[in-house]
Amino acid sequence: MTVSSLTNVGLSGTNTNAASSSSANQLAQNFDTFLTLLTTQLQNQDPTSPMESDKFTDQLSQFAQVEQGIQSNKNLENLISMQSQQRQLSALSYVGAEIEAVGDTNWLEEDGELKYKYNVSPEVPRLQLQIQDQSGATIYSEELNDVSGLQSFTWDGKNNSGVEQAEGAYTLVLKPMAANGDTFTTEKGKPASVAIGIIGSVDSVDIDDSDIYLRIGDVAVPFSTLTNVKLGASSTDTTDNGSGNDDAQDEAA
How do residues 216-240 score in pLDDT, each as one tens digit? Predict the structure, then answer.
């Protein structure tokens, strides 16, 4: 996902009005045809049995109602477009904020560290934790015995040999294990439930017609996956971003 910030702001209004404009044009063409037919009919009607005025009025009234309906739809689409643009512009206030979001991939800066949160099924006795690079290679791993409840993990950016790793995207992988070291499964033979979240600072905002993305380095975080935000120096926590992820915050941030 590579979209320059604000590239598409304002384009959605054109797209949302396309249907109404098409309907209005079609209505205008039909109305012109109707008037032509009506005029021809009036010119050639039987003088002894002319068109009743109430029928003529009803037809005009029906066209007027359709035209009003199309105009109402156009006004509603304009309002929705304005709200969407306002939401997109307000997303720029997240630049510099610390966010928590559902996801397993975070961006490591040079000499930096990465922060994650995770939650696994409470019955899991052991856990193998891995950090994988962009190629899928495991560059750091450790085993944990106390994994109950919501956990935080900070990786210092070094492999198991203590060598500093290059800047880039790194993924947290969790492998629940049974007491004997085998892969953990429930009594029904199903894998354990695992939820992972990332923590990082927003560098920029990407916007397209389908979603808003907050970027941590080169990692794009969908706006809808946010679970917690600390805006600037005020450190104001908020989870009300319209994404409906309050339940996800309880599992992972």
Answer: 999 999 988 999 998 764 434 444 4
Residue 221 to residue 215: CA distance in whole angstroms = 6
Please report the sign of the dihedral spanned by the C-alpha atoms of residue 87, residue 238, residue 220, residue 242: negative
What angle is formed at CA 108 by the lines to CA 241 and CA 90, rounded to 5 degrees?
A: 25
Contacts of 194 by beta carbon, 8 Å cutoff, 6+ apart: 118, 119, 120, 121, 174, 176
* 27-83 residue pLDDT tens: 566 666 767 766 777 677 767 676 666 666 776 777 677 777 777 777 777 776 666
CA distances from 141 to 130, 137, 162, 175, 221 (A): 4, 11, 12, 11, 25
The pTM assigned to this predicted structure is 0.61
Percent of the chain with pLDDT over 70: 67
Size of the chain in residues: 253
- Lowest pLDDT segment from 50-59, 188-197, 240-249: 240-249
CA pair distance 236, 189, nearest whole angstrom:
43
Distance between CA atoms of 157 and 28, rounded to whole angstroms?
65
The CA-atom distances, in angstroms, between 104 and each of 47, 59, 130 are: 82, 62, 11
Distance (Å, rounded) from C-alpha 63 to C-alpha 213?
44
Sheet (strand 168-177) strand order: 105-108, 168-177, 126-132, 138-144
